[in-house]
User: Fold these one by one.
Assistant:
Number 1:
Amino acid sequence: MSEIKVLSGAAASEADRRQQLVDQLKHTPLPDGELLHNLGLYLSRQTLSRILFLDELYRQIVPVHGVVMEFGVRWGQNLALLHALRGMYEPYNYNRRIIGFDTFGGFPDVDPKDGSRVKAGDYGVTSGYQQQLEQLLALHEAESPIPHKRKFELVAGDAIQTVPRYLRDHPETVIAFAYFDFDIYAPTKACLEAIRPHLTKGAVLAFDELNCPEFPGETLAFQEVFGIANYALRRSPLNPLISYVVL
Ligand SMILES: C[S@@+](CC[C@H](N)C(=O)[O-])C[C@H]1O[C@@H](n2cnc3c(N)ncnc32)[C@H](O)[C@@H]1O
């Protein structure tokens, strides 16, 4: 397997402790029948806080009509969590479809506005991962309310093309929650422009990397399409990076 490149801000000692947690998980003595009920054993504070933050955001869209879209899926943890949150907060809302866009091959390209720390191909996944994620999400769906209705979709390819195409093919789309996590300039700008007419008032527009020096492109895209000065960017004490706007 070729190396998968991602940026990490962890100090060596932190990285070492995280590796120890990974080793503990890989060599868990827990029997299979108990492992999924005990995953909290291996959750770091950072992971737990991201989960709690997603919960905070999801609760804000419960009274808002429309779909959830994630721009930048990668391994798909957010999609799986969103799926679980729908099952908990609105089990009968089969209209709340969850759609994820990704190349499933990392950044197709980077712009000079993204700075010098990232390059094409970063943030990839393993070969065939999209199919594995489809199977995983289908398993979660089978365990959820109204399982016979498919409520998630993965759209593979460069989002600069796939998102406008998706919206042309589904002109009825109303968006209640858009989560931006491409990290980079060009697809963030193109997708913000494409989805803007589909965002209803009260929709939540969230970003993983605004005001982030490692990924300046995401902020520049938001600035150029929406304008930082025009919106109140909210945050939560749960996470230093994620921010959002309630439109
Ligand atoms: C930081 S990762 C997303 C992480 C994910 N949201 C999570 O919480 O685990 C960024 C993702 O954006 C995707 N991406 C970047 N540019 C893209 C583009 N133009 N079209 C589709 N996907 C893109 C990459 O393939 C990568 O999987």
Number 2:
Amino acid sequence: MFFTSDNASGAAPEIIAAVTRANEGYARSYGADDIMARVTAQIRSLFDAPEAAVYLVPTGTVANSLALALYAQPWTAIFAHPEAHIATDECGAPEFYTNGAKLMGVDGAHGKMTPENLSAALNRVGESGVHGVQRAILSITNITEAGTLYTPAEIAALTAIARAKGLPSHLDGARFANAIAASGATPAEMTWKAGIDILSFGGTKNGCMGVEAVVMFDPAKAWEFELRRKRGGHLFSKHRYLSAQMEAYLTDDLWLRLASQANAMGARLAKGVAALPDARLLHPAPANMMFPEWAPGTNARAFARGAMFYPMPGAAGRDTARLVTSWSTTEADVDALLTALRP
Ligand SMILES: Cc1ncc(COP(=O)(O)O)c(C=O)c1O
């Protein structure tokens, strides 16, 4: 009954096997390994983006921070939802890597920025000459931190507003696979066809040991990314172990199969939670993360019965929680949690 996060699950057997295979013999270091060349080809083909530049890093935080640093100077602003991981859970890493760019909140219900709020924020910022920060980049998260989904059309609406002001757009895809599995969109439709310039493509939460790809649909800043990754201390010398994970992740649609399992278990759990007495979901839950609110005492009862999940701050007199399923969650796990939650 481990529902704290999708990174609480282990790595998929295919990933471990690939790392073991990559351990044989010698390989060129610092990303010059043969596996990395194949990964670049895989990602270009998957995204239908033959020019894309592709780099691997070990964490989502550094993927986001290095991506944003390519576009945001110290005197500029990054526009994102106030609950965005870059704003709330990266310990100031985006500010650190950009040497102090400002994060500007663009609100919206269910973890999603609205076009109206984005327009208003863009109109407010950058108009006071030398006295105010200048606009730099829009950052969107999908699946959002509220567990909700932006459709490609919703992403396109936001990036069009940003582009009209000359801003590029970043997608934090720590749960990109879950978003693709939930939407049925193609990776291209969810990214460059919807106006995304640079993507953090997550692997870790969805069955890898620790690897994320940064995909640059416009490779103009590729060399700068390489320099920033090295200077930021995130160029692995034994890079083949990152490459091997990503190659296995992309082979035979493993990434999509793992995310589909996580989402299927999310759907089973969401349905079960909605059927509990005096319980409701605070946001739609199309993928693998949900935020229920239920009768006081529900969290304590489930914890006493061995369930693991994060309680969340909520309305007075109510219990709130965050539940996350992963590629390794089984129907039996979900049903055990639902039993533990019942009076
Ligand atoms: C939406 C989102 N982005 C980025 C990250 C960063 O991942 P990491 O913990 O690997 O730095 C996470 C991890 O929780 C996340 O949920």
